[in-house]
């Protein structure tokens, strides 16, 4: 069962997208991933309360499909399959009512809104997908969980003398034991 936070985050993103044709499933999943991981990196807490798994086009909330089905069955959103080419289509999401945001923090709403604006206005779905293919995503197997704390492993960090001294101290302790 999807977490209430995930449902509210999904509905908030869908309701605040002025052009549903710019918010397919790929962008929707990437908005959630980037907002959640940014919030976790900077504030120590995610937004949606969900875990992510590796999929072909990047990290996806584990319970996103169940959450979307619940939002549809509650009459809050509608999902449409829109023809894209003769062989492909994409999902378009439209909000039917104002979203509840009582469980979402102000910062959470800000991150969701910021990433929605960035990904829907400046990037194609393919570019958004490619942006999420970092070292952590590449190291995971398809369907494997990608915990939010792994965002720290996806950032290069400088190895300072202080860090080197700490690591050498730990190594010396282990070798002495």
Provide a descriptive summary of the structure in words.
This protein has 177 residues and is of the alpha+beta class. 49% of the residues lie in helices and 14% in strands. The protein has seven helices and five strands. The strands form two sheets. Strands 2-1-5 form a three-stranded antiparallel beta sheet. A two-stranded antiparallel ribbon has the order 3-4. A hairpin with a 5-residue loop joins strand 3 and strand 4. Helix 1 crosses helix 3 and helix 2 crosses helix 4 (106-122).
List the helices and strands and how they pair.
Blueprint: H1 4-15, H2 25-43, E1 52-55, E2 58-61, H3 64-73, E3 77-83, E4 89-95, H4 106-122, H5 125-131, H6 135-139, E5 145-146, H7 161-176
Antiparallel strand pairs: 1-2, 1-5, 3-4
Helix pairs in contact: 1-3, 2-4
Shape: elongated
Question: Could you tell me the mean pLDDT?
Answer: 88
| Unreliable stretches | none
Total number of strands: 5
Q: Kindly name the structural category.
A: alpha+beta
Distance from N terminus to C terminus (CA atoms, Å) equals 46 Å
Q: How much strand content do the residues show?
A: 5-15%
Write out the strand line-up for the largest beta sheet, numbering strands in chain order.
2-1-5
CA-atom Rg in angstroms? 19 Å
Instruction: Give a quick account of the main beta sheet: strands, pairing sense, barrel closure.
Output: 3 strands, antiparallel
User: How are helices and strands ordered from N to C?
Assistant: HHEEHEEHHHEH
Fraction of helical residues: 40-55%
* Number of helices in the DSSP assignment: 7
